[in-house]
Specification:
The complex is a heterodimer of chains A (115) and B (113).
Chain A lengths: L4 E3 L2 E4 L5 E6 L6 E7 L6 E7 L2 E4 L8 E4 L6 E5 L8 E8 L9 E2 L3 E5 L1
Parallel strand pairs in A: 2-11
Antiparallel strand pairs in A: 1-3, 3-8, 4-5, 4-9, 5-6, 7-8, 9-10, 9-11
Chain B lengths: L2 E4 L4 E4 L4 E3 L1 E4 L5 E7 L5 E7 L5 E4 L2 E4 L9 E3 L8 E8 L7 E3 L3 E6 L1
Parallel strand pairs in B: 2-12
Antiparallel strand pairs in B: 1-4, 3-9, 5-6, 5-10, 7-8, 8-9, 10-11, 10-12
The chains are: A mainly beta (115), B mainly beta (113).
């Protein structure tokens, strides 16, 4: 079974530029998560999708971050414009369903450096 | 809100040493508890979990017991190997709302031969 795929693996941009990350979850997984992991910290949930609807985006900085999950499969996370403090690893995860005993499976992450 | 406090690292041990990584939590109700491991260049992997008080999760020689009275979920292994070198994250999943995961800050473990 293929795991969660993410691209690119690394990205370096200058502040005020835009960047987009892509995630392809495990086939059949209805729930998709984006996390931000700043160096030295644990992952923090940015947004959670159930199929193509948003379940929780309470910690997403909506003035600069946006995410979509068209057709309930792949997802894209965008930052526009980027700030220095956005430097982090962006993790995508998926699960069969959001509740109960269903495990979240994580992708390898995209490491973003903003200079 | 929910929070997880994890033993600060980095931790360096010799091969075959005994490992303990402390984890305590604050949460409403009775969360599920997890340990995740992140090997270099890879994503987070679930190592073990416990869903109710006194449950013991175990995998690959690692163990952790859900202690409600001390709100703890310490990770232990009797004899570590070089291949255990990784970053370990303690996490909880609330049983309310959207049941999101809350992570600790992670503990980097290095095992030297």
């Amino acid at each position: 079974e293929a795991g969660v795929a993410q691209s690119p693996r690394y990205k370096i941009i200058e502040k005020r530029q835009s960047v987009a990350f892509w995630c392809n979850p495990i086939s059949g997984h209805a729930t998709l998560y984006w996390y931000q992991q700043i160096l030295g910290q644990g992952p923090k949930l940015l947004i959670q999708f159930q199929n193509n609807g948003v379940v929780d985006d309470s910690q997403l900085p909506k003035d600069r971050f946006s995410a979509e999950r068209l057709k309930g499969v792949d997802s894209t996370l965008k930052i526009q414009p980027a700030k220095l403090e956005d430097s982090a690893v962006y993790l995508c995860a998926s699960s069969l369903a959001p509740r109960g005993r269903y495990e979240q499976y994580f992708g390898p992450g995209t490491r973003l450096t903003v200079t | 809100g929910d929070s997880v406090t994890q033993m600060e690292g980095p931790v360096t041990l010799s091969e075959e040493a005994f490992l303990t990584i402390n984890c305590t939590y604050t949460a409403t109700g009775y969360p599920s508890l997890f340990w995740y491991v992140q090997y270099p260049g890879e994503g987070l992997q679930l190592l073990l979990k416990a869903t109710k008080a006194d449950d013991k999760g175990s995998n690959k020689g690692f163990e952790a017991t859900y202690r409600k009275e001390t709100t703890s979920f310490h990770l232990e292994k009797g004899s570590v190997q070089v291949s255990d070198s990784a970053v370990y994250f303690c996490a909880l999943r609330s049983n309310f709302g959207n049941e999101k995961l809350t992570f600790g800050t992670g503990t980097r473990l290095t095992i030297i031969p």
